[in-house]
Design brief:
This protein has 128 residues and is an alpha+beta fold. The protein has two helices and six strands; from the N terminus they run H-E-E-E-E-E-E-H.
Length: 128
């Protein structure tokens, strides 16, 4: 059996043999899921993370829309994401866009900063 490199997997994915997914690293981070322009939010745990997505865990009964935002509290980032799979209590998210919560935010996502700041205060972290 021969070793197959990352480039080989990418070539197979481009040929349509399977969908290539960036490697995720195992983490245990606090997160907040937000939807409805900030009207609804709930806590989650980020279990795996890659530049293109995350595996999160939420309460078993927690319903959520397909399109939402994931605030990665410690990283000071908000990801516009889509739920791409569910295996209760876990969910797989695909990132559509990412925003640095320390930077100037577009008008349509400014509601995320106060939610992030409230989690930072509650967790004794400081948003710099």
């Amino acid at each position: 059996m021969s070793a197959v490199g990352t480039q080989d997997y990418e070539a197979l994915a481009r040929a349509g043999h399977f969908e290539y997914r960036e490697p995720r690293r195992r983490v245990y981070l606090n997160g907040k899921l937000v939807h409805g322009d900030g009207a609804f939010s709930f806590d989650c745990v980020i279990r795996d993370l890659s530049p293109g997505g995350a595996k999160i865990a939420v309460r078993r009964t927690q319903m959520m829309p397909r399109d939402l935002y994931l605030i990665a509290v410690k990283a000071c980032l908000a990801h516009h994401a889509q739920v791409v799979w569910t295996n209760v209590p876990s969910r797989g998210l695909k990132f559509v866009d990412t925003f640095d919560l320390n930077d100037n935010l577009p008008e349509n996502v400014k509601f995320l900063r106060p939610l992030w700041e409230s989690v930072c205060v509650r967790g004794a972290a400081t948003p710099d």
